[in-house]
Structure formats: structure tokens, C-alpha cells
Amino acid sequence: MGVREVVWPEMEAGLEILRHTMHAHHAQRSEVDALVARLRESLAIGGMPETAYPMPPPEGLGPAEKQTQAR
User: Fold this and answer.
1) Angle of helix 9-24 versus helix 29-43 axis, rounded to 10
2) Are 6 and 13 spatial neighbours (Cβ–Cβ below 8 Å)?
3) Under a CB-based contact definition with an 8 Å cutoff, are residues 48 and 42 in contact?
4) Where would you tag: which of 2, 3, 30, 59 has the fewest CB atoms within 10 A of its CB?
5) Is residue 40 a contact partner of residue 15, using CB atoms and an 8 Å limit?
6) pLDDT 10s per residue in the chain (71 long)?
7) Degrees (nearest 5) of the Cα angle 15, 21, 24?
């Protein structure tokens, strides 16, 4: 089909919200740019597997996991 790149508007909007939020909390620009680039690559079609950036399950973390995350 000749498609080289697909833009996913919702993902891009979310990444920009993340970028603005991190800047508002005084994160280093280089760290923010690196994080957004990694996330964009991992979320792209054919990108890295979802397990590269594990997320908590939809029901949230259990008590043991919350203690581990807090440390």
C-alpha cells in the first residue's frame, strides 16, 4: 500500500499532555524528550512489545505490589 507512517492522534495528544505535565513539574527537557521518544516507539505499530513498559492491571495494584512500588 506504500504507507510509511501512520499518525495516531489520540496517542500524540496523550504524549503532549505528558510532556507538558512533566515540564510543569520541572523535569529535565532531555529526560522528557527521551521518555516521549521511547513511548512513541513502543506504542507505534510494529514497535517494541507492550511488556517493555509494564503497566499495573486495570483493577490496580494489590497490597504487596503497592508496598514494593512505594520503596
Assistant:
1) 160
2) no
3) yes
4) 2
5) yes
6) 787 777 888 989 999 999 999 999 999 999 999 989 888 888 776 555 555 455 556 666 566 544 455 55
7) 145
At 34, which amino acid appears?
Answer: A
For 2-45, what is the HEC assignment?
CCCCCCCHHHHHHHHHHHHHHHHCCCCHHHHHHHHHHHHHHHCC
Predicted TM-score of the model (pTM): 0.55
Q: What are the cell numbers at 66?
A: 503497592
Q: Of 54, 51, 23, 49, nearest to 36 (Cα)?
A: 23
Grid coordinates given for 20: 507538558
Question: Whose grid coordinates read 512533566?
Answer: 22
